Amino acid sequence: MREPHNITTTNDDVPSGVVLFGKYELKRLLGVGAFGKVYHATTAGTRQSVAVKAVSKSKVLNGGFAANVEREISIMRRLHHSNIIDLFEVLATKTKIYFVMEFAAGGELFHAVARKGRLEEDAARFYFRQLISALKHCHSLGVFHRDLKLDNLLLDENGNLKVSDFGLSAVTGQIRPDGLLHTICGTPTYVAPEILLKRGYDGAKVDLWSCGVVLFALTAGYLPFNDCNVTVLFRKIYRGQFRFPRWMSSDLRYLLSRLLDTNPETRITIDEIYQDTWFNAGEDQYEPVRVKESECVCGESRTGFKSLNAFDLISFSTGLDMSGLFEDPNGSDSVERVVSAVEPENIIERVEATAEEEKVVLKRERNGGGAKLEGQDGNLIGLVVVYRLTEELVVVEMKRSEKGGESGAKFWKDKLRPLLIELAGERETPVSGDFCNI
User: Fold this and answer.
1) What PROSITE patterns does the database record attribute to this sequence (predicted)?
2) Which amino acids are annotated as binding site, given as ranges?
3) What does the alpha-carbon distance between residue 40 and residue 27 come to, in Å, rounded to a whole number?
4) pLDDT tens for the chain, residues 1 to 438
5) Residue 173's beta-bridge partner residues?
6) What does pTM read for this prediction?
7) Number of other CB atoms surrounding residue 21 within 10 Å
8) How many alpha carbons lie under 13 Å from residue 116 in its C-beta half-sphere?
9) What's the CA gap between 188 and 325, in Å, rounded?
10) Looking at the domain 19-102, which fold is it?
11) Catalytic residues, which ones?
């Protein structure tokens, strides 16, 4: 993809009067992360404020974090909640990936607490309710944040909480056969004790532990577990060693003791939080946020095949093909797509039968939505993924890998491409790249 001509940067990569893709004018730097920078920007037409995260493709590729960035995009697309930062658009140039997101004008909740020292319980309850509502939405869609902390909780112009930064998040597809996640991640002062044991953990339970740390910090003005010596810090977390400040109410102490329970089996659940005395106290009547089914950006169908939406259709179109966002520019993998009226399961079965004829190994994805094709030498030949477009139609995507060698290329040309054309029904040739012509 060509670099837009209207992007100019200084030597230190801080933009000066930059307009991205003729749509977003960058204003000021908001923060710097491991892979890029976040800017405040405005839309060229309406002057609406947005946040633009510019991620370096070379840093992502060289660091082996392509899957993490791709997963973050996938997760943010499926989440749609008033207390979660919205992802509006993903754009890319030859060197960078741009996340265009909702702008939180109020900044980090961390700074709001730092200015006041600590929050009164009513104020803390207001934010905590919104945090739990957002978390319930995430968990209902099989998303576990894994890095909840004051730094990742933002405020909009009306003072409402917005959960951000899903870069370390996990989804149910990453759960191992033992029913647990195993990746060690998170921020030391917020990490749950079971993560330290390195024996696997429940993503929902570790999120609730982090919520307990957040609530404690909001109302105490300091973290429950903190030490300059990491070994000592982890020992305190593992043993659950902390003290309540004298000004905390007994109801709040009880809730925090349930959230910061070192035993994940007895730790409080979200449903139990909704029944908690402190959570439901206060003069304001709490009403949980209800997310309409139609508002969910994307999700999995009951059969496990992913449903497409407007975002996906745009992503497949020319110039915004996300299939190329994470590939090495020197790579030569080929991607082709068709629309078919054949049932998804039947498509996978037909691909499997074709593979068996040529002694190609087909490995189904755990959610049933796709499969990998490998040669007898174990090298990857290609990927087949089926997306649900409507009740009657699906999109079949096939991606060839150069690692398959000559035999893989022959299998692709002589077997898979003809099958793709056959699945397309009346279409004589498969659609490649431009979804708008389907």
Assistant:
1) NAF (PS50816), PROTEIN_KINASE_ATP (PS00107), PROTEIN_KINASE_DOM (PS50011), PROTEIN_KINASE_ST (PS00108)
2) 53
3) 5
4) 333 334 433 334 545 468 888 889 998 898 887 677 899 999 887 889 999 999 888 888 877 777 788 888 888 888 999 999 999 988 888 888 899 999 999 988 988 888 888 999 999 999 999 999 999 999 999 999 999 999 999 999 999 999 998 888 888 878 888 888 888 888 899 999 999 988 899 999 999 999 999 999 999 999 999 989 999 999 999 999 999 999 999 999 999 999 999 999 999 999 999 999 999 997 665 565 555 343 333 344 444 555 555 445 444 443 333 444 444 444 444 677 777 788 888 888 888 888 888 888 888 765 556 788 888 777 888 888 887 766 677 778 888 777 777 877 888 888 888 887 787 763 333 444 333 333
5) none
6) 0.66
7) 17
8) 14
9) 31
10) Phosphorylase Kinase; domain 1 (3.30.200)
11) 147
Tokens of 103: 């702008």
CATH superfamily of 310-437: Kinase associated domain 1, KA1 (3.30.310.80)
- Annotated binding-site residue numbers for ATP: 53
Ordered DSSP codes for 146-186: S---GGGEEE-TTS-EEE---TT-EEGGG--TTS-B----S
Please name which of 199, 196, 198, 221 lies closest in space to residue 209, comparing C-alpha atoms: 196
Q: Quick one: tokens of 236? A: 């305190």
The domain spans of the chain are 19-102, 107-295, 310-437
On whether the CB atoms of residues 109 and 116 are closer than 8 A, the answer is no
Residue 75 CB coordination number (10 Å):
21
Provide the CATH number for the domain formed by 107-295 in this structure.
1.10.510.10
Q: Given the structure tokens 């990490």, which residue do they identify?
A: 191
Q: How many residues does the chain have?
A: 438
Cα torsion 224, 228, 234, 239 to 10°: value is -50
